[in-house]
Specification:
Blueprint: H1 23-35, H2 39-52, H3 57-69, H4 73-86, H5 91-103, H6 107-120, H7 125-137, H8 141-153, H9 158-167, E1 197-207, E2 214-225, E3 228-239, E4 242-254, E5 259-267, E6 277-288, E7 291-300, E8 306-317, E9 320-331, E10 334-345, E11 354-362, E12 376-387, E13 392-403, E14 408-419
Antiparallel strand pairs: 1-2, 1-14, 2-3, 3-4, 4-5, 5-6, 6-7, 7-8, 8-9, 9-10, 10-11, 11-12, 12-13, 13-14
Length: about 425
């Protein structure tokens, strides 16, 4: 049977090409890429859109947000400021600018941008909360509280507002094991949020009544990590017409819920004024309701070993921290003790700036900062610490003591702090 072969059709079937994506579709895709954690692809998509529509405010805003997430601060600021100049009443642009400055540790600029945001959206609680965070970062605690109360009145989550208010207090212990410990009794042990390094330089001068004045200097640098910190110190002392030097490693570490420890090792190679080797271990435990207790053992490696056992009980009330410390000093053939009462007032409502006063009787000095020279029967001190900016702070103090045979000592101290 013959096979019938059919010739191919002489006409070509027309196929419609796919329509190119519209500008809005491309913009939606760019936003999806940005919000799904693909910043490089989102950036390429926004660049293509700006090539089609130079100066488009929405695209500049989107690209500026992507640059911010990538921590490309200068490019982010250029895009967002261009968008703000082109559309000054666009609230989302001011929100993005505020976030940029807040994340880039520029609280003053963040406050200004968030201020424009709340002026445009006065009934949006989230804008007031954002500006409160910037106020807090700038140390303007009263303004932060006022913005938080405004947000509460506008219907913000009450628990979030309460938590933000509590975060501005120098509370002595965390509410949960995963929360970093805030150490009211040790203001230099925990650094303000957003910083990982701190350095200090301090000195003191003491008039002992007879003979040359004593002087001491300490320089330190400390690194803060999740769950603790470690610092390196160099110490110099000039007393009894001698000069001594030492260095130390000093660490703080979070332990279990509400607990942390201070561990220190100090070494003085020449062992003139400082002990050749000395160390400390002190464990702090929160008891709840603002109470904190600590146990300590300081070991001083003089020719005759000295142990100083300490027990302290502290209480945080409002902006106040009060602590009573008892010490037993035990060495070969000798025992003595001392008490110290400390009161500290955080007058700015944060954990940085405070006024402090102490009163002591017996041997109740800081054992590792002294040469172990004289017994004391009583004394006291006043100290003022203030952070003048986000990064710089200072300390000024005065002290007095009364020793054996009614000998009297008076001293002054100064310090400079830097954090970054």
């Amino acid at each position: 049977m013959p096979i019938d072969f059919q010739p191919p059709p002489t006409t070509t079937v027309q196929v419609q090409p796919a329509s190119p994506a519209s500008f809005d579709e491309q913009y939606d895709k760019a936003r999806t890429l940005a919000n799904s954690g693909q910043p490089a692809l989102a950036l390429a998509a926004y660049n293509a859109l700006l090539a089609q529509s130079p100066g488009n405010v929405d695209v500049l805003l989107g690209r500026g947000i992507v640059y911010t997430r990538m921590e490309r601060w200068a490019e982010a600021q250029a895009d967002l400021e261009a968008a703000a100049q082109a559309s000054p009443d666009y609230a989302d642009v001011w929100l993005a600018l505020g976030n940029l400055h807040q994340w880039h540790d520029q609280p003053a600029q963040a406050i200004e941008a968030y201020g424009r945001l709340v002026a445009l959206r006065p009934n949006d609680a989230s804008g007031w909360q954002a500006r409160a965070r910037a106020y807090r970062a700038a140390g303007r605690v009263d303004d932060a509280r006022a913005d938080l109360e405004k947000a509460r009145a506008l219907g913000a989550n009450g628990a979030e507002i309460d938590a933000a208010m509590a975060a501005m207090q120098p509370a002595p212990a965390p509410a949960a094991a995963s929360t970093p410990v805030t150490r009211a009794g040790n203001p230099e042990a925990a650094l303000a949020s957003g910083y990982t390094w701190a350095a200090s330089l301090s000195g003191s001068w003491t008039d002992v009544g007879s003979g040359p004045r004593w002087n001491d200097q300490t320089a330190s640098v400390r690194h803060y990590m999740k769950g603790g910190s470690i610092g390196f110190e160099t110490l110099r002392a000039h007393r009894f017409d001698q000069t001594g030097h030492a260095w130390a490693l000093d660490a703080y570490a979070d332990l279990w819920n509400g607990a942390y420890a201070n561990i220190r090792y100090q070494r003085a190679p020449a062992a003139r004024l400082f002990p050749a080797n000395s160390g400390r271990i002190e464990v702090y435990q929160s008891l709840g309701n603002g109470w904190e207790v600590s146990l300590a053992d300081d070991v001083l490696g003089f020719e005759s070993r000295v142990n100083i056992y300490g027990l302290a009980l502290g209480k945080y009330v409002g902006n106040w921290y009060v602590q009573l410390r008892h010490q037993n000093i035990v060495s070969e053939g000798s025992r003595s003790n001392g008490q110290r009462l400390l009161a500290r007032y955080y007058y700015a409502g944060d954990a940085d700036s405070y006024l402090e006063a102490t009163a002591n009787s017996g041997r109740s000095d800081d054992p590792l900062s002294l040469s172990g020279g004289r017994a004391r029967s009583g004394g006291g001190s006043v100290t003022w610490v203030r952070y003048w900016s986000d990064n710089w702070g200072s300390k000024v103090g005065a002290s007095f003591s009364r020793g054996a045979n009614d000998a009297r000592e008076r001293g002054v101290s100064v310090g400079l702090y830097r954090r970054w």
